[in-house]
Each structure stands twice: as structure tokens, then as C-alpha cells.
Amino acid sequence: MKKNLVIAIDGYSSCGKSTLAKALAKKLGFIYIDSGAMYRAVTLYFLRNHIDISDDAKVIDALKHIELNFHSRDYQSHITLNGEEVSDEIRLMPVSENVSEVSAHKIVRHEMVKQQQRMGKSKNIVMDGRDIGTTVFPDAPVKFFMTADPKIRAERRFKELESKGNNETTLEEVFENLAHRDYADTTRKESPLVRADDAVILDNTDLTQDEQLAFALERVEPFLT
User: Fold this and answer.
1) Alpha-carbon distance 191 to 109, whole Å?
2) Are residues 115 and 67 in the same domain?
3) Annotated binding residues for ATP, as ranges?
4) Which residues are annotated as a binding site?
5) 111 and 132 part of one domain
């Protein structure tokens, strides 16, 4: 198998990017890197420490005090923020409502992109996010762009929140949050969400997790030898 093979997965929120990326990484023995979790962890730090996103000096200083790491447990990827496990907390609504603004910040994006590129220099990885195939790894040989019906995406996200004990958020609020994030992600000046010209579109509105994995594996297989 080739070394340093990057599989880039981009797409809208709650399209199952991380589900597919985790499944691919497990099947292929690759390392899974959740770039979205990195931006969410930064957002959580900013919220906790009342960092004014409009103050570049404070943003630069805050980033110096943020250490992010991924580790695997029970075949799942977990992220730590300065040594603290925050995988669940970064998925709650306070972070969801602010992550688009934080991730659109030029200084934040440049720092995260540098970290992501370092992670992919010497290992076989699967990385999902918004600009992996366009900005982080534009030369990645395998790229997917995921999408799904907005109502289906909202329902999936709502069920995920419910499963984690968050019963205060309504389905309508989740739908509106996703619509806001779609707009912010696709219209931001810094690395907007767009499909790379060579990315394969994967619409999983009507696909099961097994079906989308099979779809992806079929397109990855030629690059494994």
C-alpha cells in the first residue's frame, strides 16, 4: 500500500462526513483526522475564555495557548483541548452557533491548515472538513464532496443531539442553525466551502452507512496499490 495517501472529504454540515471518514479509516487502517473538531475545539476555548473574535491580537495570543490532539479509543477518534477530552462538548449548540464565525477567521484558518498539513506529511490519513480538497490538500488523489437533503441533515443532527442527552434544542432550531452555517461556510472570504473540480459528489440522502462506504471504497481502491 502507498504511504502518505490522503483521502479528502468535504461537504455540508451533518452530511455524514465524519461517519464516512471514520469508516474508511477503520477499513483501510488509516488515521482519521476530524478537521471540523479542531475548529470546534478552538471555538470552545474562545467561548470559555471570552475571546473577542474581532480582536486579532487576542486571537493570535489565544491560539498560542491551544494544544489540540487526537487519540483513538474504541475505534473512535477523540479530540483533547489542552489535555481535556472535549469530543462531546464541542458538538453542543453553543459551539455550533459560533463555530462558523470562528472558522471563517483568517488567522484561525491559517493556523489550523498548517497543523492539518503537518499531520498529512508522512501518514495515510482520511480528513474531513470544508476545504480539505481545495485548500489543505489540493493535490490529494482521492476527494469526495458530500451533500444531502437539508431536512434529512437536520433530522440526523437532531437525533445525534438527543442521543447525547440534549433535549432542549428543537428540530426547527437545528434546521435554522444548519441553514445559517451553510450560508456562512459557502460565502466566507477565507477558504469557502466549494466542491473541488476533481471531487466525486456523494449524495447520501437515500444511502445507508454501508452503502456510502461501499461507494467510497470502490473509488479509493485504485489508489491503494
Assistant:
1) 8
2) yes
3) 11-19
4) 11-19
5) no
